[in-house]
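User: Please run a holo structure prediction.
Assistant: Happy to. Please share the sequence and the ligand.
User: Here you go; the ligand is thymidine-5'-phosphate.
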Amino acid sequence: RQGSIEVICGSMFAGKTEALIQRIRAIREANEDIQVFKPSIDHRYSQTRVVSHNGDAEDSHVMMSSEALLEAVNEDILWVAVDEVQFFDEAIVDNMLRVADRGHHVIAAGLDLDFKGEPFPHVSRLLSMSDRVTKLQGVCAQCGKKASRTQRLVDGKPARATDPLIVVGGEEAYESRCRVCHIVAT
Ligand code: TMP
Ligand code: MG
Ligand code: ZN
């Protein structure tokens, strides 16, 4: 049984989780089983579900660490979905590779770039080592053009380069922006 890794990446509000949910539903409609995982840090909309910005949701298993994936994957279930991969530690990549080597099809979704426009290093590695990549774009909240970046706002102003990398949030703190409109304050 040959496994695989597929990644859905892009900025916030680009429809990554929505695309993942569509894949999960299509697989289930084909009468195949899929296990869905997300990191415990993402309590934004729901403690236990994978939820898109437009409110679509699927139940998921919450993982405290990337190691939990190895134990949690059921040998008999071909498909594995993981949302918000950027929140995991870098061991998530090796653990996903191991799951794919055991013959599972892994579909992961997450941010490729942080609020500064810099790659999340383990997501970069995952993209390079995956079999298939879909990069989604949002709509720039400033100019309406296609957006590949995520703007973080603090009290309505662009976040600073020295701000923490991880700040869980949604529309109150983030918007998608194009290269021209994306700002990192110094
Ligand atoms: P989303 O891609 O499903 O919209 O969610 C991205 C999550 O990542 C959201 O909780 C905000 C968080 N985030 C960070 O922690 N740091 C960042 O640099 C960016 C852009 C988002
Ligand atoms: Mg999402
Ligand atoms: Zn713009």
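The first strand starts at residue 4 and ends at 10.
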